[in-house]
Amino acid sequence: MSEVGKRESFTIPIGPQHPALKEPEHFLISVDGEIVTDAVVRLGYAHRGIEKAVESRTWVQSLYMLERICGICSHIHAMAYCLGVEQLAGVEVPPRAQAIRVLVAELERIHSHLLWFGVSAHEAGFDTLFMYTWRDREKVMDLLEGFSGNRVNYSVNVLGGVKFDIDDAQAIAIREAVSFLEERTHHYLDVVTKDTMFLQRTRGIGVMTRSQAEVLGTVGPTARASNVYREIRVEAPYAAYDKYPVKIILDNRGDLEARFVVRLTELFESYRIILEILETLPDGDLTTRIPRRIKAGETVSRVEAPRGELFYFIKSNGSDTPERIRARTPTICNMMSVMKLLVGHQLADVPMILAGIDPCFSCNDRMVALNRGRNKEQLLTWEALRQYGIDYYKRRSD
Amino acid sequence: MGSTTIKDVLISLTALLIFPGGLFLLLVSLAYEWVDRKLLARMQNRVGPRWFQPMADTIKLLAKEEIVPDAVDASLFIGLPIVALAGVLTAAIYMPFPGLPPIGSFPGDLIVTVFLLSLVTICLGLAGANTLDRFSLVGATRTLTQLFAYEAPFLLALLGPAFVARSWEISEIISYTDGRWLLITQPFGFIVAVIGLIGKLEIPPLDAPEAETEIVAGALTEYSGRGLALFRLAKGVALVLGLTLIAAFYLGGVATPLLFLVKTLALLLVIVGIHALFTRLRIDQTVGLWWKYGTLLVLVQWLGIIIWQGVMI
Amino acid sequence: MKFGTMLGDLTISLFSKPSTERYPFERSETPERLRGLLIWHPEKCIGCGLCAKDCPAGALDVIVLDKESKKYQLRYYPDRCIFCGQCVYSCRQGCLEMSNEKWELAALDRSAFEIIYGECLENE
Ligand code: SF4
Ligand code: SF4
Q1: Is the residue at C15 inside a domain?
Q2: How many angstroms separate the CA of residue C21 from the nearest CA in chain B?
Q3: In chain A, how many domains are there?
Q4: What ipTM does the predicted assembly reach?
Q5: CA–CA separation, A82 vs A59, rounded Å?
Q6: Total tally of structural domains belonging to chain C
Q7: Are residues B277 and A128, on separate chains, in Cβ contact within 8 Å?
Q8: Range of the domain at C108
Q9: Model confidence over A20-38: pLDDT tens digits?
Q10: Alpha carbon nearest to ligand 1 atom 3, residue
Q11: What is the CATH number of the domain that holds A75?
């Protein structure tokens, strides 16, 4: 940040408290008039140390801890964790449970994409669209609440299966809501691709070429809007996705409009999968027994969260608590692309481009180590880290 | 002689401070703000505020502590909102405000009125430029940029009716437009006038100067308490007066309070509809819109008027 | 290219009821599976303590009052509870249940956040 200060340009701080971002993150935007010349991001205001915290919890308790990494995609975190642990323990989860996991994951994707859609409409100053999408999103929230008993942290997963079953009444409610949402999504797709005023804010803004998207390591819909073939549900089907194949949605324009179109089109895939699962839900148990102590070993679990690839590394030492868990969330992969894209755009486009990657800041507060080729590793013990913290704040207060 | 002067002064004071200017106007502006917010909410399928909400907001803001930042010129910081409000309240004198003939008038008062209305925007820009806050500075720049963009077309649009009425005095223009729907003969002028009003009051979609998601509250970011309340009031009054002016000029006059109510509310509905329907424009798009289309439309309108007048003669 | 693609929505909404629910004056029916306050049915409890062991929030304590006559006490702290439902799932005896009616749990008094189920057993 000091580099920016030296240039003595006019800088605009966005966050950690700012109406565009309701979450604590800091962006320092240098502008020349209205044009952005440099952008710096600072993450870490909401670091909660969840990965460390789970090391002192049992495997069962960790599930709920990890579910709370993100409020929007809570199910997918729990699912990634469960899939990993089940793989370590070597248990086979009944197909019905896997199908229900996928069903909830798709419902969650719908709610997440609609939420994002509303927020980015708000960033563009189109509050009407915001209000309508959130009104319609309520339908999915009601479904999730009716199915699991909670609106946000559904806690559908348990190690070895799922807690809740789908009965006929649920199926009817889901079908009804899905058909309503399908109609609405057609309408919204119409709005984002035809409304002249809205297109002024999205078409040709924040263009990321395919090679850029690959170099910057973007994932999820952000990457797919730049025509990068990257979708875990297709490339490495997990849970029940091998039985319910997903069609990958790509767009080659790479601008904000493409990101809107990709996400909205993905919703249709989600609707289709949900209806298919309801038709062909396999019979059988919901759970299988899983030991309290997980066999020693390590594994990797990858799932496609609404925002892109979610990656879990899980290591067990044979006890009833995890030895190490590491989550890599999609937003942190996408964040650097924003810093790159902002340069050269208008200040007014900043919130839109930022919203374009569907940032989730609570997911974001993971540690990243940048390897700048120096290859100098640093390992701090707990005490040293504590001392560092104390010294740091002492220096700050002087 | 002496008694009549005192009486005159009393009447003038009443007109200025209580009815139809002053207090009454403030109340009407709060009511219009409520209609605005309620209509918007209903269009967005929400419930919207209850009728006393704008008043409660204002009273609350007035009662709150006003924080004067260190780095500002304190007298300007405190004075600007007062000037803004006083300006628009003065403008009310020359207006056929609640459907009554204007209290004061002199040749050329139309120009004075339009500039009194612009005073709000200028004060806003100065207030933003007065602080060191970076959001305010960007907001102030945008406010003034927008002012220069819409001011000329807006004024020209209002001069259209004045031209056909052959007077620059509001009372004479409205006696000409009474019953004549200039909307039909000068449709472009009407469109530009309405959009100009939206731009003047920074109502979405032309609210780039106070775009919440970019620059918090624009020029008003540092304002709190009384100053903010006064600026809000000034904007509310400017909205009512702007609606009055356009309704009187283009919609066949506002000869009675009932006509005033019906016509201004109809106009408000249109403005709220535009607010709800469109995405915020970036400042460069706003300026482009004005210079490319706004000015062009007005000029076409003027050409039309002049040719028409020529034909008539 | 169109202007005002949402005009239809606006007009419909203008003449229809807002979709906002005026809670607390009107409330929609709570779903059957809603996870509200935890309820304990002591009859079948065997005091295994699994519920307390698995609770991620430390919101449960199982206290053995008398092992012979199978008297147990369940201390439940709703302010710590994250309503995950793991305890209900873990209890093999089916003693635990989450209410779908008691979910408005805000209180001004801390005592509301310490529920001791099975207190009466002590008095017997
Ligand atoms: S619902 Fe979850 S947090 Fe609450 S008592 Fe049961 S296990 Fe604990
Ligand atoms: S798990 Fe069930 S049986 Fe065991 S102590 Fe808890 S309530 Fe009692």
Answers
A1: no
A2: 9
A3: 1
A4: 0.85
A5: 10
A6: 1
A7: yes
A8: 31-123
A9: 667 788 888 888 877 888 8
A10: C81
A11: 1.10.645.10
